[in-house]
Amino acid sequence: MHKYHCLNPIAAVGLDLFSDDYQKVEDIKDAEAVLVRSAAMHDLELPEGLAAVARAGAGVNNIPLDKCAEKGIVVFNTPGANANGVKELVFAGMLYASRDIVGGIDWCLANQNDENIAKTAEKQKKNFAGTEISGKKLGVIGLGAIGVLVANAATHMGMEVYGYDPYISVSAAWSLSRSVKHISNVEDIYRECDYITIHVPLLDSTRKMIGADAIAMMKPTAIVLNFARDLLVDEEAMVDALAAGKIKKYVSDFPNTTTVGAKGCIVTPHLGASTAESEDNCALMAVREIRDYLENGNIVHSVNFPDCSMGACMTAGRIGILHKNESGMLSHFTTILGNAGINIDGMANKSRGDYAYALIDVDTNVPEDVLAKLEQTDGVLKVRKVK
Ligand SMILES: NC(=O)C1=CN([C@@H]2O[C@H](COP(=O)(O)OP(=O)(O)OC[C@H]3O[C@@H](n4cnc5c(N)ncnc54)[C@H](O)[C@@H]3O)[C@@H](O)[C@H]2O)C=CC1
Ligand SMILES: O=C(O)CCC(=O)C(=O)O
Fold first, then answer.
1. How far is the CA of 169 from the centre of ligand 2 (A)?
2. Rounded to the nearest whole angstrom, what is the distance from the C-alpha of residue 352 to the centroid of ligand 2?
3. What are the distances in angstroms from CA 54 to CA 50, 209, 305, 357?
4. How many Å lie between the centroid of ligand 1 and the Cα of residue 94?
5. CATH topology of 1-82+277-304 equal to that of 84-94+134-267?
6. 33-69 pLDDT, tens per residue?
7. DSSP state of 309
8. Ligand approaching nearest to the C-alpha of 143
C-alpha cells in the first residue's frame, strides 16, 4: 500500500486517479508521497520514507530542492498545467490597471440606494475613464508556458509584443507567434513598453530582477504586472516610484505589507491558478507523475533529478538508484549486481547537474542484501526496489 499526504487541498479529480493500492494519510511522517501547492516546505522535517513530492503547479520556490535531492526525494512539478488560468488573469490585470473598473464598481455599490443612479452614473463615469490596450506595447519577460500564452494572446488584442527570454526552450520558441518581437536586451522592454509582465521562476539569479534601476528606465505611464512571485521585483522601489508618479500602476498577485494599500498597487490574493480547470489539470498531472514514479520508477517532469523513463517493467525486477553524478557509479552498480549473479536486461542512466538516476531492469528478484550493498555505495542517495 502506497501512502500519500496532501499539504494543500488537491482537486478530487486528481486524487481519484489513485487506485485502491493508495491510502491518504493525515500525518506527513507516514507518507511515501506528498502533494503540495503553495505550502512552505523549507522548515518541514522530511520523513525517511518520503520518496516523492509533487507540486501541483509551476513554481517550486516553496520546496527545498537540494535538501530533497540529498535525501533521495524526487520533486516534480506540473509544467503548463495552470498556464491558461494565469494568462487570463494577466489580461484582467491589464484591464484593471488601464481603466478604473474597481473604482467604478465601488461607486455603483456606494450609490445602490440612489433611485436616479442611472442618470448620476452618466455624469460620474468620466471619473473612471481609462485607456485601451490595443495599439500599446507589451513586454513579456520569460517566455515559458505562461509567457508564450500571454504574448500570443496579446498579439490578438492588437498589442505590439516584445518578448525576452535568453533561455527559451525549443518548444516554447516553436509556440511563439511570429508577430512577437525578439528582444535580446531587457532594457529595451523597460524603456519602451507601456505594459511589462514578468513570467520567470524565482531563483537566486532572478531575485529582484526588476530593481530600482529597471524601474527608473520605465515610462511614467508604464504598468508592471507581476503574476510570477513578489520577490522578483524590488517592491520598495516600486512603491516609491508609484508614489512619486514615476510609473503608473503595479499589478501583483502576491499580497504583502509593502504593496497592499500602497498608491498605484492593485493586488490579488495569489489567484492566478485558482480556476477549476487549472486545479484539475495540475492535480491530474501531479498524481500521474507520482504513480509513474512509485509504480514504474519513471521520472517525468522532475525539478531536482533528471527525467528518465523506461515504460512499464516487463522483466522480473526493476530497481531505481538515485545517486550523485560522479564518475564510476555505474560500474559499482553493475559489479554488485554481477557478483550476485543478477543479469541486467535493460538500463537507463541520466544526469542533471549534481544528481543522476539509474533505472535497471533485471532478470530476477533483487534480494535485500544486494539492495543494501547498492545503498551503501558512496554517492548513492537512495535505492528503490520498484518490482
Ligand atoms: N500566480 C500564480 O498563481 C502562478 C504563478 N506562477 C509563477 O510563474 C512562473 C512562470 O511559470 P511558467 O511560465 O509556467 O514557467 P516556465 O518554466 O514554463 O517558464 C519560465 C521561463 O522563464 C525563463 N527564464 C528563466 N530565467 C530568466 C531570466 N533571467 N530572464 C528571462 N527569462 C527567464 C525560462 O527560460 C522559461 O522559459 C512560475 O515559476 C511561478 O513562479 C506560475 C503559475 C501560477
Ligand atoms: O497552487 C497555486 O494556487 C499556486 C500556483 C502557483 O503559484 C504556481 O503554480 O507557481
1. 21
2. 24
3. 12, 27, 13, 18
4. 18
5. yes
6. 999 999 999 999 999 999 999 999 999 999 999 999 9
7. -
8. 1
Q: Which ligand is nearest to the CA of 270?
A: 1
What is the model's pLDDT at position 109? 98
Q: What is the CATH number of domain 306-387?
A: 3.30.70.260
- Residue whose entry in the numeric block shows the C-alpha cell 533528471: 306
- Alpha-carbon distance of 193 to 139, in angstroms, equals 6
Q: 85 in ligand 1 pocket by Cβ < 6 Å?
A: no
Give the domain 84-94+134-267 fold: Rossmann fold (3.40.50)
CATH 3.40.50.720 is the classification of domain 1-82+277-304: yes
Q: Is the CB of 322 under 6 A from ligand 1?
A: no
Residue located via cell numbers 511563439: 176
Question: Going by DSSP bridges, is the β-strand pair 137-141/344-352 parallel, antiparallel, or unpaired?
Answer: unpaired
Domain boundaries, the chain: 1-82+277-304, 84-94+134-267, 306-387
Task: Give 77-108 pLDDT, tens digit per residue.
Answer: 999 999 999 999 999 999 999 999 999 999 99
ipTM given for this complex: 0.99
